[in-house]
Every structure is written in structure tokens, then in C-alpha cells.
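Pinned message: reference record for Aldehyde dehydrogenase
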Amino acid sequence: MSISTYFDTMDYGPAPESDKDARAWLASHEASFGHFIAGRFTQPGGQLEDLDPASGKRLAHLTQGSAADVDAAVNAAQAALASWQALGGHGRARHLYALARAVQRHARLLAVLETMDNGKPLRESRDVDVPLVARHFYHYAGWAQLQESEFPDHVPVGVVGQIVPWNFPLLMLAWKIAPALALGNTVVLKPAEDTSLTALLFAELAQQAGLPAGVLNIVTGDGSTGAAIVAHPGIQKIAFTGSTEVGRLIRAQTAGSGKSLTLELGGKSPFIVFDDADIDAAIEGVVDAIWFNQGQVCCAGSRLLVQEGIHDLFIARLKKRMEKLKVGAPLDKCSDMGALVSPVQLERVRRLVEQGVREGAQCHQVALDTPPGGCFYPPTLLTGVHPAATVATEEIFGPVLVAMSFRTPDEAVQLANNSRYGLAASIWSETIGLALGVAPQLKAGVVWINSTNQFDAAVGFGGVRESGYGREGGREGCYEYLKPRHRLNRAQRNTASATPAGAHKDSPLQGGLVDRTAKLYIGGKQVRPDGEVSMACYAASGERLEDVGLGNRKDIRNAVAAAVKAGGWSNATAHRRAQGLYYIAENLSARADEFARRIALTTGVSAEAARAEVDAAIKRLFSYGAWADKYDGAVHQPPLRGVALAMPEAIGVVGVVCPEEQPLLSFISLVAPLVAMGNRVVVVPGQQAALVATDLYQVLDTSDLPGGVINIVTGKSAELLTVLAEHDEVDALWVRGPAEFSATAERLSVGNLKRCFVDHGELTDWHDAAQGEGGEYLRQATHVKNIWIPYGE
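Predicted structure (C-alpha cells):
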């Protein structure tokens, strides 16, 4: 064929990349690998096979990690921890810089090995994954250098267990290892059993680069190895990327253990195209959103939502574009798509597509001419999909796009949020005001405007809802590997009753108010408990004071419903929220003497201490009133033509369980930051001083706070906590009290994967600003949504 013919047909011949160097590296290890522990490879066990997805042929034998292997790795990490931290930020920065340079020097070998092991096209490994790996180590070398000045009140968490998936084996390793090591932690990492080779190569490069022995440990194996890491008592934090189902198991298994937890889980991300979008650009965006890495991407834009006016045209042009996609050998530099990672994943994709067709979808696929023996699947488009269809709600994790239409921006938001997930979203519109108006309404941790699948080490990534919690990347990612210094050597709370020994005296109530029973506070109104039952409250002396309502499951349900209905508070201006808190402080100040007497009577502290608690509560309200319109986001400048806006957002409805000590100050310290950031709360006061909280709702009644923003349900704390933890419309839990309260909250939060901010029974000095207020509470009261905005032509 002549050159002119090629220009006419635009056909490309194969352009295979040599795998010679990768094969030579495998041969140097006799294609058999042990673990990497304490700076060296262990003797290979060879129980697992690592296969090439494109051919089904074996690449290497791997060792199945046992509990003893995990124990050895944790011991090595613990032994290296003190010296690694003693290096200081600059010393660790030099090591991370060396790792970044090592990745760049061996970029071609890493890219080829990644493609052989995972099945993704070489051009993705070469042009996306490996450069981002180097970028992460450079970026976090900088955070290591700045750690002492930027995080002076924080310390490393310790030994970190990390479990990464098979879709981005090397990149996920960098996302997790780089911040952990930079900030003074040591690591035990388990790569996915199907794709462990680049992790082992990276360990070898780290050894050659002089990383101290034991700082990084790699243990290969299947899910049982990961379970052993999660369960190991010597590990202080678990960072997991994978399926929502496994994330739930990890949350339940670590409940009450005190382990910090970062979960980056599944997704079903919407790709929204408005009728004023650049259609050609949006179609190329679809290609990148769903057929990048064969759709094996947690944030893949797998739900296409197109405005009715352009729907038919868009779908017709998308089908034509699909016909140009080349599915073939992953090492062929002309391949747009490679192979799915394994026969198991291939069968899952096939099964779900068949189910979608049975449920009424129309299927359009590209004809394939692929190498034999591989796990190849064609680019697939399902149209006519109902929003409740299985393929529209379940994560397929393959090259399958489901398409629906919408009429108005409000309908687009409703469809986009019609998911249990909340990882990412993409918006396409030439009207930037429309795009920026829709972005805050989407339940997602990342929003891309007129772009998709943008990642950078400086910009946080992570989800909401059942897509998990925590952030990876940027400053947000640093906090995941640090803990406040004040958490060191905290005393455990004394959970014995605060009431003096001796029988309670059921004498006439104080002040002769024999028939007074304080009600619950729900939706801005004082209401009787559903069960029409009350419980007695006593003075520190044992004298009976008054009764309070004994709330039950239905009362919590009503309170949560009221909080959900008060969603407008999350959209109120920061100035409005600040004024609300100042007004509460003003009205509390007018009744300061009354509250001081109540505190002294119920807790037994001196009049001076009681007044000091009231004054501290007023001051704390002022602090969060001040923060309400000053806790701003950031503008990141990633290495592209555009910016990323890091916007703190309210979590939603938060359940709060207060401790017994310092009942007014602890109540305010927990509720005020949540309200300041736009959340709505359902509060369970401590049982023994519940009257302090019920007195407070009279202050709320006169403070111009919308009904439903603060709801108070008195009763038995343990029982009401269980109801809050199991309620799927509660988005997070803040719990202070006995250690078993924390365990209950974490264990029962798995239904919708609530964020839990608990104390594991540690006693808080609420008068100490370092322990009782500040940045930690504001970060826990928000999640950061990163909105990417490219600019230019």
C-alpha cells in the first residue's frame, strides 16, 4: 500500500513494544517471587500464578502470604519506625526524591511490566500511570520537607497496612506509599493477587535507591493475606482501595480497634451532557471516561446522562466513534483498549450485560478481531436503560456504558444522585455558570467540568456515601497518615456512674415542680416521646430533680426525618450560619447563671467550675461562629491548563452521642462545628446530665435557628446510639463515651458506610482548645469536593 492510501484509510499497522527487558527481569528472579520484608526478598513459596490477561499464559509464580508472613512484615515495619521518624522531614524527603528518580529511570520497564501484568494498553501505562507515580513521590517529598512547619501539632500514625487493587497496581501503590512514608510512617502493603509484579519491581528499585530496610514491606497473596493485615494488632491504620463489599468487611473487622481507616471504594459515576455542550469534545470525554483501562476504573463515567434535545444525535455520533476504537494486544502502541484483568472479571461483565438486555436495554457493541486466548471484551453501549435497572445501579467495572436522557438540570441532578455511590461525576456544558451551579449539588467527592479522569498528586481524591471516606492526594491526603499530637497518652474515661454512692432519693422534685417532664426537641418543637415514657434525673447528691423523655427508635426516626427536611441549612450562606451561632451564644449568655446552677446541681462541681463551663461554652460558640465563614477551600494548580477547587462541604445528617462529663461544654463542642459547617444533627445527651441539654432547647427556641437543624433525643445512650448507627439516612456519627460506644458505632455503621469520629473511650479535656475544638473538628465536619475546571481552547 502507498503512503497516500494510508492517509485515505487512516489504517494503522501494529506497533508492538518490546517486552525483552521485562522478560529479562522476570528471568533474573526465575519468574518466582517471595515477599519483600525487612529490605530483602524472602524464599519463594510459589503457591499463586500471575497470568498475562492478554494471552492467559503464566508470567510468574507468587507466594501466598500467611499470618506468619504478615507478622514478620509488621515486626520489620515496627523495628524501622523509630529510626525512620528520627530522620526528620528533610531526610525522608531525600529518600522520596530518590524513589521518584528511580521510577523515572526505569519508566519503560515499569510501563511494559504493568501492561503485561494488568492487560491495559501500553500507552496508558507509559503516558498516564508511570508519570503519575513519579509525580506522587516528588509531591510528597515536598510535604516531608514541610512537615514540621505545616503539621506541627500532628504526629505519624505508626505502622500502616495498605491493600491496593488490580486496576492501577503501580499507581495505587504510589498513592498510598508516598504520603505514608513522607510523613514518618512505615508500611506493609499487599498488592492484588492478579497484579503483584510492579509492586515487587518497585520494592527492588527502592532497595537499590537506599530506602532503609523495613520501611517498606510487600506481602503478596489473596484476600486471606489482606484479612491478616487488617486484623494484625501491630498495625495502626488501614488504607484500602477496592470493592464496597470488602470495605464493609474491613470496617466491621476494625470496629473498636482504634485503627484509623481510609476507604476508597466502588462507584457508578454520572457523565452529564447538557444541550449546549461541545458534542465532539464530550464524545471524546466519554471515550476517556468509560473505555480508559477497559472501564476498570472506580470513577469511570459509566452512566451517560444526555439532555433530551441532543440525545439522539449524541448517541448516533457516539456509536460511530465506537467503531473507530481498536481493541487488541496491550503492548501494541496503537491499541485503544487491551484485555480485562482475568477470566473471572470477563465473565462478570458478560453476565451483567446479558442481565441488562433482559431488563430491556438495547445493546450496541463493536465487532472484535483480537488475539486468541485473552480476556477481551468489546466497547459496549446500553441504551433505553431504566434508572432502576441493574446495569444502572450496580458497578460493572468493565467497558460498558449505560445511557439515559434528562430534560432539565434539576432532573439531571436527581438522576446523577440516584445511586448508593458517590465517587466522581463529569459535567459537560459551554455555560460555565450552569456547570458550576450543578457541581455542588452532586453527591460526589470529585467533579470534572468539561473533562474526565483528571488526577494529580496535589488534588485530593475520594468519595462519599458507599464510595468510602478519606482522601488521597494533596494536603487532605496528608491528614490521613497523621494524628493530633494530643491523642498521645490520653487517659481512658472513667465510665463509672458520676452519681455518688448510695440510693437515689425519690423525694419531691426540686422547686416543687412535681409534674414537670422535659420533652424531646425535634424539628424545632418540644415533643413528647413516642412511648410516653420518662426517666428520672438526679442531682449529684442523689436527690431526684426532674424527669426527661425516654426516647426510642421511633423518636430517632422522627428526629432524622426532621434533620433531612432541614437540608436548606447546608445551602445557607456561611454568614447566616455564623449569625445563628452568635445568637445562640448571646441567649446562652443571658441565662448563664441559670445554666451554672443546673450544672453544679447535676454534676456536683463547684459554682466557680460550673460558671467556667458555661463561659467556655459561650466562647466556643463564638469560635465556631467565627470559623463558619472562614473555613474556606483552596485553589489547586495541577500541571494542566486549569484549576481544581477544593471545596469543604457539609456531610449531611450527623448523629452525635455526648459524654457525661462537662455536659454543656461537651454538647456545644460537638454540635457547634457541625452546625457551623452546614450539617444537621440528632443529639443524644449524656444520660446523667440530660437536663442541661433540655434546658438548652429553650435557648434554641429563641435563637432563630431553623427547625430540624438541632434535634435532641434524651434516653438511654447505648440504645439510641444503636438506632443512629443503623439508620441509613444518618451520614456520619460523632460519639464520645465508653470504649464500647465507639466499637458499636463503627461496627453498625457499615450499612451505608457512615464516617465515624469516635474517641475509643479516651477522656477529653473539653476546656483544652487543642483537644476540644479547632481544625480536627472542622475537618471531621466536612468532606472536600474537588472540582476540576480546565480553561483555554
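Pinned by admin. Summary line: The CA atoms of residues 117 and 651 lie 39 Å apart.
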